[in-house]
From TrEMBL:
Keywords: ATP-binding, Nucleotide-binding, Transport. GO terms for molecular function: ATP binding; ATP hydrolysis activity. This is Phospholipid/cholesterol/gamma-HCH transport system ATP-binding protein. Residues 5-241 form the ABC transporter domain. It comes from the Bacteria. PANTHER family: INTERMEMBRANE PHOSPHOLIPID TRANSPORT SYSTEM ATP-BINDING PROTEIN MLAF, PROTEIN TRIGALACTOSYLDIACYLGLYCEROL 3, CHLOROPLASTIC. Gene3D superfamilies: P-loop containing nucleotide triphosphate hydrolases. InterPro entries: AAA+_ATPase, ABC_transporter-like_ATP-bd, ABC_transporter-like_CS, P-loop_NTPase. It comes from Labedaea rhizosphaerae.
Length: 338
């Protein structure tokens, strides 16, 4: 099972500019979580802070009892072995074929024999749908295949935590859905903890078990997917709709004059863009049939049902509606809505 990540009061600045402050969240072990937010809110900075590439000024990031913020260089080196990272562009070496790209971490950080490296590399290429492509160069394959090759490389050291930075970057909506399916299939097979940073609303609404959003230098919310997807928070609703109508502007937040001028245009009939109706919680994508059952889904059900009474009513209703009659009986929740 993947490792739990506990973030407490994390604050990061560059000089006098605060990127985000007092971020607190827990990434549940073995579950898939997504982090949303307008451009420039520091989502990628957050990923880099989690693996110690950037040092926050305040707070803790605990992984297996080790605080990434204050630990020694030796502890940081060992803890980083728990991570696999998929960068926006795949970060592949252009002069190496896919086999050598995926094998690179094994050759650099282990003493495994070439026969063992070959077995592992071919296994990870197969998991990510790249069997038979090991001799191709990055320039000879599509953007989606490069993403999958980057994921295969992230998997070779058997990470417990996988960080994914904007997997939809450079991909069309169909390929984004395919790479999303790969994430869920990998999660089903190795039960790793995932954190996906994305702007892609379809991915955010249909893939993760948990969703959070950064806005105005703070974590607006983080929790079960049903909480954010039923939220009445104006910034959350605007972001999910992709509309100009709301507090988010070109420079993150609109001033009152801009907001008033735009509102007058919308009331006069100017289309605010985006999608009108985002009501409801869409069905979550599942692992491909034939894959192992996602253990994170089972654990999430138990965890969410244990905190159900603390969640907003709309989220509660959608969570209960998603349960089978047998599950409703098991959790003794049917009578809540009678």
């Amino acid at each position: 099972m993947g490792a739990e990540v506990v973030v407490e009061g994390l604050t990061k600045s560059f000089g006098k500019q605060t990127i985000w402050r007092d971020v607190t969240m827990t990434l549940p072990a073995g579950e898939v979580s997504a982090l949303l937010g307008p451009s420039g809110t520091g989502k990628s900075v957050f990923l880099k802070s989690m693996i110690g590439l950037l040092k926050p000024e305040r707070g803790r990031c605990l992984i297996n009892g080790v605080d990434i913020v204050t630990c020694s260089e030796r502890q940081l080196y060992e803890t980083r072995k728990l991570f696999g990272v998929l960068f926006q562009d795949g970060a592949l070496f252009g002069s190496m074929n896919l086999f050598d790209n995926v094998a690179f971490p094994l050759r650099e950080h282990t003493r495994k024999s070439e026969s063992e490296i070959k077995r592992i590399v071919l296994e990870k290429l197969d998991i990510t749908g790249l069997a038979g492509a090991e001799k191709k160069l990055p320039g000879e394959i599509s953007g989606g295949m490069r993403k999958r090759a980057g994921l295969a490389r992230a998997l070779v050291l058997d990470p417990e935590i996988i960080l994914v930075d904007e997997p939809d970057s450079g991909l069309d909506p169909v390929r984004t859905t395919y790479i999303s399916q790969v994430f869920l299939d990998v999660n089903a097979q190795i039960d790793a903890t995932f954190l996906i940073v994305t702007h892609n609303i379809n991915l955010a609404r249909t893939v993760p078990d948990n969703i959070g959003m950064l806005y105005r230098k703070e974590l607006v919310m983080f929790g079960p997917r049903e909480v954010l997807l039923t939220s009445e928070e104006p910034a959350v609703k605007q972001f999910l709709r992709g509309s100009m109508d709301g507090p988010i502007g070109m420079s993150e937040e609109k001033d009152s004059a801009t907001a008033a001028a735009e509102q007058a245009l919308f009331e006069a009939g100017h289309h605010a863009g985006g999608v009108e109706d985002i009501s409801g919680v869409p069905e979550q994508m599942q692992a491909t049939p034939g894959m192992p059952e996602r253990q994170g889904v089972r654990r999430r059900k138990d965890r969410v049902m244990s905190i159900l009474h603390t969640l907003p009513p709309a989220a509660q209703r959608h969570i209960i509606d998603s349960l089978s009659p047998a599950e409703q009986h098991h959790y003794n929740v049917r009578q809540v809505w009678r």
